[in-house]
Amino acid sequence: MSIEPTPLASSEDPPYTIDAVAKDKEREKLGPAEAIVSDVIGRLIEFWGFKRNMGRIWAVLYLSPDPLSAEELRKFLHLSTGAVSMTLIELLRWGVVRKVWVQGERKDFFAAEVQLWRMISRVFNEREKAEISFAIDAFEEAIHHLDTQARSGDPVVAKRAELQRERVKQLLEFAKLGKKVLDMLLSTAKVDAEPLARFLLRVSRSG
Fold this sequence. Notes:
Layout: H1 18-22, H2 32-47, H3 52-63, E1 68-69, H4 70-77, H5 81-94, E2 97-100, E3 109-112, H6 116-150, H7 155-190, H8 194-206
Antiparallel strand pairs: 1-3, 2-3
């Protein structure tokens, strides 16, 4: 049986009290499990084309039962103040981290997006979908040029253009298929695919 993370406060939720955050203020470093997970998420995020510290900071916030300040993140991950600040700005822009109001505190606190499916769909919508659309436009432009070359009076040029046109058409069809799959994924995420994701995880584990 998997344990679902407790959703963190939204703008409609009551503010956190200072006691809820202060109870762990003496902690100077991450626990072993937190360190392992933050490092792994950092490596995965870096492989996906993002900065490693984005994954590390998000993972620490994701595993924290309470929102954390930039200073706490700096202390836990041994990063500079500037590095934490810039990374939080990027995470906020992607919508995977948000500011949380803590009652009695003037400094900012941060919490992670805990709905993984929703978080991934945001990235797909802003980055992967744009790249696939760009590829489709580029392949169609290339085919247009190859159509012209295929009508060339030079048989060598025409033959090469015909071969290239057929192969680029295959790339185009593959890109269009990828866009359809991504569109289906994103439309599913809009109606909250978390229950489906949990079901698929249970099926994969039982297999």
